[in-house]
Amino acid sequence: MRQAALGLDVEIDAATMEFSYGAGVSGPEPEFRTLDAIRPSLLDPNCSGPSPVYSIAMDVRRKEDEDDLKARYLLFGVVAYAAGRLGKEPVRSQGHVHAIAPHSGWSPPELYEIWEGTAIIYAQEFAADDPGRCIAVTAGPGEKVVTPPGWAHAVINADTSRRMVFGAWCDRQYGFDYTGVRAHGGLAYFPIVTADGAIEWVVNHRYHATGLQQRKARTYPELGLGPVAPIYAQYRSCPESVEWVAQPQRLVQLWPKFEP
Predict the structure, then answer these.
(1) Which of 33, 54, 208, 210 is most deeply buried (CB count within 10 A of its CB)?
(2) What is the β-pairing status of strands 134-139 and 212-216?
(3) Could you read off the pLDDT of 96-126 as tens digits, one per residue?
(4) In this predicted model, what pLDDT tens digit does every residue of 80-104 receive, in sequence order?
(5) CATH for 4-257, among 2.60.120.10, 3.30.70.2740, 3.30.70.100, 3.40.50.1100?
(6) Any idea where the domains of the chain sit in the sequence?
(7) What DSSP letter does each residue of 8-24 carry, written as one string?
């Protein structure tokens, strides 16, 4: 399916999860995450399921934006998730914390925009025995979700019958820290697919979690983000609306109480 209406002309092959780019758009060949690569963070590490689990292309951009994106340390990624289940769980990523970006000294936030299907972005405040606030946000096409700096998080395909695709603004010096999540055998809550296809949550008892908040996607006026326009188009019209992804220190007073 072609995604030209979202500010970037990107086509994702439904069968192979490979990407192709339209006129004026550049991007790499996708990387594929296999089931074996994410087993350490699953409820059942020995489960069966689709592999690759998802494909990801980082640094997708309009060619004319390349120098500006480098100067702002911004990076745009596109990710396609397979349909199906990983044992009892829906298709999902393994969960991680963003590594400290050398240019800012911060673990960067991330801005997601769902393009196809239904996603749940799960985030917890810490990857420690006490995970702090644990929040699961359900989002559909056009909706946006922000994970705050330093939070452990994962993205889940909430509809096992179809693939899910999203775009995301990331820090150009991105990196992943899996240490705390893997030490606890995953995140503080595991998503489980019920008999009717709904998502329920199972506590990971390696944490001392005190409850999971479930909510729908919201808007983020406090970040200067518009509620309707696609996030790449917002960068094109007003780079400052997404620049906080790579410059979170500019909002240092906002983040302590911020929630997805």
Answers:
(1) 54
(2) parallel
(3) 999 999 999 999 999 999 999 999 999 999 9
(4) 999 999 999 999 999 999 999 999 9
(5) 2.60.120.10
(6) 4-257
(7) S-EEE-TTT--EEE-TT
